[in-house]
Amino acid sequence: MPSLWAEVISPKIKTLLGKKMDNDIYNKQNQQLHPQDILKNQAEKWQISLTSEQFARKLDETDPLQHTRNEFYVPKIGTLPHGEFIDAADKSHTDPDKDCIYFCGHSLGLQPKRVRKSIDNWLKDWAELGVRGHVHGTNPFAKCDYPCIPALKTLLGAKDNEVGVMNQLSSNIHFMMISFYRPTKERFKILYEDRAFPSDGYAIHSQIRFHGYDPTEAAILLKPRENETYIRTEDILELLKEQGQSIALVLLSGIQFYTGQFFDIKTITHASQQQGCVAGWDLAHA
User: Fold this and answer.
1) SUPFAM superfamilies of this UniProt entry (predicted)?
2) Quick one: which of 56, 58, 97, 181 is 20 to 30 A from 159 by CA?
């Protein structure tokens, strides 16, 4: 059976996934630094101003993943709805044939060019095989998730039987919370971060009400300190020490939806478990 993974992912990407990327930005030492410090160090090494266009172009030129831009359709300025132009004084922003600058990948990613072929293959099988397409054809419908599992288990560090590909974010959060949010009279609260992806908050409040509790009492919202953007790990650990015995579930994003903060998953998970809390991580935007 031809793999959906093979159809959608380019050969270059598969090659990079199978070997270490040789680039200063991606080295192991840099993984311990704040992104801002990584960029500052790189600018000093190249002797280029961090805020210059030259530095941005240099980053693109040396990025081993630079070719992936060509794997996606980028909307043209001329196809966008009226009134989307930020700076009409800059004529480059109003050229209808120019690619837009897309910063909404955390909400809806750009369309991969290969996905149309994959969908067409399924439509062809549906037309030619009907119900038999469930178990026959290019990618049998009943097994359409199978090709995704090897890549996901590697990404997650999990076993085949620990990975399931199904539904969409809100449904999956509900399914997971039905299994892992088991409130008691003493331990019924859920800890999650401010400005999480909206459906996370909706699901959390819905589950709290479903179990007969009041979200104003049972939902604990993590916020950064005043005049700060990121939530400090030490503040999360301190809150767990203070209220951990009343928290049933800690549900955070791997990478924060709005700020891009990468939470210390290992440290927070360990601290949560020490307090008897179940720790869950929404990696939909990670």
Assistant:
1) PLP-dependent transferases
2) 181
Q: Which residues pair with 280 in a beta bridge?
A: 251
Distance CA 222, CA 235 (A): 9
Per mean pLDDT, which of 74-88, 99-113, 206-220 is the most reliable?
A: 206-220
Residue 170 burial (CB count, 10 A): 15
Tell me how far apart the alpha carbons of residues 173 and 268 are, in angstroms, rounded to a whole number: 19
- H helical segments located in 115-232: 115-129, 149-156, 169-180, 198-210, 215-218
Strand partners, 219: 190
Give the Cα separation of 268 and 279 in Å (integer): 8
Tokens of 64: 């081993």
Catalogue all structural domains in the chain, each as residue range(s) with its CATH number.
169-282 (3.40.640.10)
pLDDT of res. 251: 97
Amino acid at 105: G
State pTM to two decimals.
Answer: 0.71
